Amino acid sequence: MNTNNYILNVEDIHKSFGNNEVLRGVSFNVRKGDTKVFIGPSGTGKSTLLRCINQLTLPDKGRVWLHGEEVTNSGARINHFRQKIGMVFQNFFLFDHLTAVRNVEVALLKVKGMGKEEAREKALYELRQVGMEDWADHYPAELSGGQAQRVSIARALAMDPDVILFDEPTSALDPELTREVLEVMKKLAQQGMTMLVVTHEMGFACSVATEILFMENGLIAEQGSPEMLLSDPQYTRTRNFLGQLA
Ligand code: ADP
Ligand code: MG
């Protein structure tokens, strides 16, 4: 396969849990700087798809490439790819016993093997990127959900990822906190970060997505630019779904 023009290739991903066929052959390609937004009903396989991309879940069939190197079946190299494919979850997953800066630092020390001073400097730099430098010495319990999520984005950025996967990053947040997280994500997109985002925030999708992919029953049912999906009458399934959200 010619993967030259793409940063990430996802080809024919299948995944079942017992008799539950969750992903039924999902393929798409991602260019550097793309923001792809995945929408679709709950239980349709969006989280499973993101987890298959960085092999937190092993697909039954199908392959993933990053810069033309195979991520699937990569053996011990998977740890390298997991650094390059960052992930941000709905519930942050910060360490409660570590301050914000220590949460960002820990992988730099343990995974990247950086020295203490360099790791601290890098962690503070990434916290500054998400507007959280002033909160560096606070523990997760002292942060709002939006602040905690911004720390978890800083933690992903610290690995210098090629792509960041966001799985409903604002679903646990109030509207006001949602806005501050989406602002950070929008800024990252404008700076050229490549991102795959599962979200139902259609304002974000319309203003930031290079493409929206509508998933249904384990497949990409429709995909296109925000303008096309929202205005072209042929995209009835996407618009019916969006009608239910409103
Ligand atoms: P979405 O993110 O679109 O809501 P998910 O990918 O979370 O969908 O889930 C799709 C289906 O896969 C659901 O039916 C869910 O119960 C099932 N599923 C997800 N993870 C597991 C798992 N680890 N074990 C068993 N079933 C799972
Ligand atoms: Mg999900």
From TrEMBL:
Top-level division of the source organism's lineage: Archaea
PROSITE patterns from the UniProt entry: ABC_TRANSPORTER_1, ABC_TRANSPORTER_2
Gene3D superfamilies: P-loop containing nucleotide triphosphate hydrolases
Organism of derivation: Methanoculleus taiwanensis
Similarity-based family: Belongs to the ABC transporter superfamily.
Name of the protein in its database record: Glutamine ABC transporter ATP-binding protein
Sorted UniProt keywords: Amino-acid transport, ATP-binding, Cell membrane, Membrane, Nucleotide-binding, Transport
Domain ABC transporter: 8-242
Entry membrane topology: Peripheral membrane protein
SMART domains: AAA
Molecular function GO labels: ABC-type amino acid transporter activity; ATP binding; ATP hydrolysis activity
Compartments, as annotated in UniProt: Cell membrane
Signal peptide extent: none
InterPro entries: AAA+_ATPase, ABC_ATPase_HisP-typ, ABC_transporter-like_ATP-bd, ABC_transporter-like_CS, MetN_ABC_transporter-like, P-loop_NTPase
PANTHER family: AMINO ACID IMPORT ATP-BINDING PROTEIN, GLUTAMATE_ASPARTATE IMPORT ATP-BINDING PROTEIN GLTL
GO cellular component terms listed in the entry, alphabetical order: plasma membrane
Source lineage: Archaea, Methanobacteriati, Methanobacteriota, Stenosarchaea group, Methanomicrobia
